[in-house]
Amino acid sequence: MESHGSGLRRVLLLAFCISGIWSAYIYQGVLQETLSTKRFGLDGKRFEHLAFLNLAQSVVCLIWSFMMIMIWSDGGKGGAPWWSYWGAGITNTIGPAMGIEALKYISYPAQVLAKSSKMIPVMLMGALVYGIKYTVPEYICSLLVAGGVSLFALSKTSSKIISKLAHPNAPLGYGLCFLNLAFDGFTNATQDSITARYPKTNAWNMMMGMNLWGTIYNLVFMFGWPGATGYDAIQFCQNHPEAAWDIFLYCLCGAVGQNFIFLTISKFGSLSNTTITTTRKFVSIVVSSLLSGNPLSEKQWTSVVMVFSGLSYQIYLKWKRVQRMQKKRRST
User: Fold this and answer.
1) From CA 221, how far away is CA 223, in angstroms rounded?
2) CA distances from residue 80 to 88, 143, 193, 303 in whole angstroms, order as listed
3) Separation of alpha carbons 274 and 221, rounded Å
4) pTM for this structure?
5) Alpha-carbon separation of residue 47 from 43, 159, 176, 323 (angstroms)
């Protein structure tokens, strides 16, 4: 009876994590799309300073992580020193900025699909630079994702979607997304290196260190010289309070979403988190199509299904690998 109650609690906790990640990041996606396409106020101006979102997100997450460390992590003692994050902070500042800037040139569903193809540059680098050999199923996964993204990019975008974009330019938009993925790859590798060197580093230490440097770099970029774009962003928010409120909610969603991701990884493992976040991306595209009036053609929906079929197959392969490793441990 006790094990049944424990199992039920785990199911309820998993459902809580899923609902938290989905609601936070799907709503953040809606806000991101709104900020990149909406015309604010009577003057009908767009919020052109999308890089400002990275600064605002870094500040909110820095404050949030500091609070969590003070409350839950014994002041963060024993973790990696703050200066060790400076390198990862650079790529973590540039990469997401490129991803957000891409929304000026391509639609939100296109951006989500392009950023879902992270496995492609990872496998290319692994095979060409490090000589890693991948299995046939892994190549099938990457081909499905690459084919889906390519098909979506080559499909004709509706005039309604194009009219919402600030500066329609598909090659530039997709190029920024793939540069974002490349910088993310370096960031992840550096974070793994920091964790290996400082084993007592927890998620909150990592979050605070990354966002501390992100705040510093973004402040320099946005306000480092007279006439920098940060001053225009502040002026825009003062003239359009509705945009300022959307930016605050966008940042809050990011901080709350990271909480649920850390909780999911600690309680259910990274594979469960990958499954939840992957399905969330698919739902984000559906929500964008329905709420924002961004109709996708049959060919584009086919490409969406191809991408997420590849990602789902990748998750299944990871699950099978975990099962085999667990069997080996039990037999030894």
Assistant:
1) 6
2) 13, 38, 11, 42
3) 32
4) 0.74
5) 12, 21, 19, 48
Cβ atoms 109, 296 nearer than 8 A: yes
| Structure letter (DSSP) for residue 32 | H
Cα distances (Å, whole numbers) of residue 35 to 66, 164, 204, 270, 321: 28, 11, 28, 31, 41
Write the DSSP assignment of 34-99 as a string of letters. HHHHPEETTTTEE---TTHHHHHHHHHHHHHHHHHHHHHSGGGTTS--GGGGHHHHHHHHHHHHHH
Angle formed by the axes of helices 108-115 and 170-197, nearest 10°: 40
Each residue's pLDDT tens digit, 200-226: 777 788 888 889 999 999 999 899 888
Rama region for 163: left / alpha / beta (φ>0; ψ in -120 to 50; rest): alpha
How many Å apart are CA 104 and CA 166, to the nearest integer?
5
Which residues, in sequence order, are CB contacts of 76 under 8 Å at separation 6+?
69, 202, 204, 205, 208
Give the single-character DSSP code of 102: G
Which two tokens mark 241?
Answer: 């309070």
What are the pLDDT digits (tens) for 252-288? 998 888 888 877 876 776 667 777 777 788 788 777 7
66 to each of 87, 205, 210, 212, how far by Cα in Å? Answer: 20, 8, 12, 10
* One-character DSSP codes across 149-172: HHHHHHSPPPHHHHHHSSS--HHH
Question: Which residue reads 């698919």 in tokens?
Answer: 282
> Of the given ranges (30-44, 48-62, 268-282), which has the lowest mean pLDDT?
268-282
Tokens 């079929």 belong to 309
Q: How far is CA 52 from the centre of its chain?
A: 16
CA 304 to chain centre: 18
